[in-house]
Amino acid sequence: MTESSANKLLNGDACHRTSNGRKSSKNGFVKNHCLFQQPQKYRRPRERKNQNVTHNPSLYKKPFAESFEETPLLVAVLTYMGYGILTIFGYLRDFLRHWNIEKCQVAREREEQKDFVPLYQDFENFYTRNLYMRIRDNWNRPICSVPGAKMDLVERVSHDYNWTFEHTGKVVKEVINMGSYNYLGFAENVGACADAAIESTKKYGVGVGSTRCELGNLDIHEEMEQLVARFLGVESSMAFGMGFATNSMNIPALTGKGCLILSDELNHASLVLGARLSASTIRVFKHNNMQSLEKLLRDAIVHGQPRTHRPWKKILIVVEGIYSMEGSIVRLPEVIALKKRYKAYLYLDEAHSIGALGPNGRGVVDYFGLDPKDVDIMMGTFTKSFGAAGGYIGGKKELIDYLRNHSHSALYATSMSPPVAQQIITSMKIIMGEDGTTLGADRLRQLSENTTYFRRKLREMGFIIYGNDDSPVVPMMLYMPAKIGAFGREMLKRNIGTVVVGFPATPIIESRARFCISAAHTREIVPGD
Ligand SMILES: Cc1ncc(COP(=O)(O)O)c(C=O)c1O
Fold this sequence. Notes:
Blueprint lengths: L2 H5 L58 E2 L5 H26 L27 H5 L19 E8 L8 E12 L14 H13 L14 H14 L3 E5 L2 H12 L5 E5 L4 H9 L3 E5 L4 H14 L11 E6 L11 H10 L3 E5 L13 H6 L8 E5 L9 E5 L1 H10 L1 H4 L6 H15 L6 H22 L6 E2 L4 E7 L1 H13 L2 E2 L1 E3 L9 E6 L13
Parallel strand pairs: 3-13, 5-6, 5-7, 7-8, 8-9
Antiparallel strand pairs: 1-11, 2-3, 4-10, 9-10, 12-15, 14-15
Helix pairs in contact: 4-13, 5-13, 6-7, 13-14
Bound molecules: pyridoxal-5'-phosphate.
The site of pyridoxal-5'-phosphate has 14 residues, from helix 6.
């Protein structure tokens, strides 16, 4: 793809889903997120007027292709009908439970408390009781091996329609793992990382028993943070024991009353919780939609705070690198252009993209060839590509120094376990090639090849998949509620472990299976042409 073809952009607008009536290719697949010129059949019919900074193709150095086919009308109708039937049966069974014809397994208000205000709303439990319970066997399966390319599962059965489970004592061996976020295959119990983690356990033990600011600041933590800063290309970094807490505890340290958070509608729960805890005003923009973001930014500048119309103290845009339910990649060049134009700050959560994207595995900034300094707060986790645990924040030295003294997770949480820190150091050095091998580069190439191959194969087989062509998170649409459980079970019968997802984690008619591709997957696992 050349620069000149980039200039022939037709489809620079943001990520709307295609309408039901749009003509699609054989399997209904429509490319509607492509910033570079596509074959005629994939193009949008009309060029948009009023292109502005948010539609500037010159911001992208490489093709940006994402697809989100809107649910076909017939499938939508059948899916709603499926939920309708399940709801009718749910009411019927609730009726039978009420009259003790069917045994009621669900927790109920105690008889002596029946005049109290109910502790929980019975209706809210309806979905769990009558819909989720039917397919509960697809989740929380106990795994009894390293979650690598293959894994062992503890076999379990339910004799009461999934209310309780019993272990049979058998192990389901060598299940192909298509669900763990093991992008670079570092979830291992042998090899350089495991050896180094064992050595560090011998030296430091596992627990630290104190916070960073007291007696929990080990030399290995400082070494790790300097390495992380070097990896990200930022001045400084700080690591935390938990990725979720990195978001939920640091956002409140950065913004507060009188500040505005502009949050992507599909942001992770940890970002949402952090934003809520901060007491900032939160406004939500459509997923990866730059017009929607720009509108909010413009309104925020023009109108200021409600009632007083004073300017906002700070405006913080919060986005993720790869969205783990959609497989989409943030339109970072456009977000950065907007944040510069409107003088807002940018918080980028790279939980799924760090290690998994970019020629050097340095995430979405590396992927787009951008300057890390353009992102004010670089957040990420060590739980995915590094096969470890915890999270980090990277950025300017003043930012990190401030967080060390103001973040609850820095001041009040026990610091990271030393073998975990060692796993991060060793895997990161491998990715950076500082171990003197090409193992890191090989894994990055393998992940990229596996991703391209897997997405292409699914598409050729006629499945509807979501997301960016380069995203190792591959959502495959199932739509109907009955398919959620059936797909998970049938895959397991074929010795393949997948994650299936439905409402409320997805919109009601967009249930899906989510595959996570790993560099550890071989052609034997994902058969070649
Ligand atoms: C975008 C994002 N941020 C944060 C987290 C939380 O990270 P952790 O699981 O390491 O606590 C996740 C978890 O999957 C995530 O997807």
